[in-house]
Specification:
Elements: H1 4-19, H2 31-34, H3 37-53, H4 67-81, H5 93-97, H6 104-120, H7 125-135, H8 139-142
Helix pairs in contact: 3-4, 3-6
C-alpha cells in the first residue's frame, strides 16, 4: 500500500486550514482580554467611580473614602477576577464592609453604575455579564443590613 497519496492529502489539508485562518491551537480570549486588559479595566473603573460620585443613591456613603485608592484597588480586583496578570493588594471584603451598614439596594445601585460604565466603555453585554457574575458572590460579604 502506497502511503504517499495519503501524506499529500494531509499536507494539503493542513495548508488549506492554515490559509483560511483556522488554527487547531486557537484559544478563546480571557475575560481580561475581553475587557481590554489594563487599559480597558482602568477606563471601566474610572467611569464607574464617576458614576458613583454622581449617584444620589450612594454617593454619600463614599464621603470619607479615598476614591483614588478605591479606584486603584478596584482595578486590581477586576484584573484578578478577570484572570489577568495582577495581584489584589486590598483587604478582605467582609472585613472592610462589616461596619458600614450596606444594604442590598446600595449594593445593587453600585452594580448598576458599573454596568452603565461598561456600556459607556462599549463593553459587549456578554462580557459585562461575565464580570458581574464573578463579582456577584461578593454581595454576601458586602451587604450587612438584611
Amino acid at each position: 500500500m502506497n502511503i504517499f497519496p495519503q501524506t499529500l492529502v494531509r499536507i494539503f489539508l493542513c495548508l488549506s486550514i492554515s490559509a483560511i485562518g483556522i488554527s487547531p491551537q486557537a484559544q478563546a480570549s480571557t475575560l481580561y482580554e475581553d475587557l481590554g486588559q489594563d487599559a480597558g479595566i482602568s477606563r471601566i473603573v474610572d467611569q464607574t467611580v464617576q458614576q458613583i460620585l454622581n449617584d444620589s443613591r450612594i454617593k454619600d456613603g463614599f464621603k470619607e473614602t479615598n476614591m483614588k485608592r478605591l479606584a486603584s484597588l478596584l482595578k486590581e480586583q477586576f484584573c484578578v477576577l478577570a484572570d489577568g496578570p495582577c495581584k489584589y493588594n486590598g483587604d478582605d471584603m467582609k472585613i472592610v464592609h462589616e461596619n458600614l451598614g450596606i444594604t442590598s439596594a446600595q449594593f445593587n445601585a453600585l452594580a448598576e453604575d458599573l454596568q452603565s460604565a461598561m456600556e459607556k466603555c462599549e463593553i459587549p453585554f456578554s462580557v459585562q455579564n461575565k464580570l458581574i457574575a464573578r463579582l456577584a458572590p461578593m454581595k454576601r460579604d458586602i451587604v450587612t443590613v438584611r
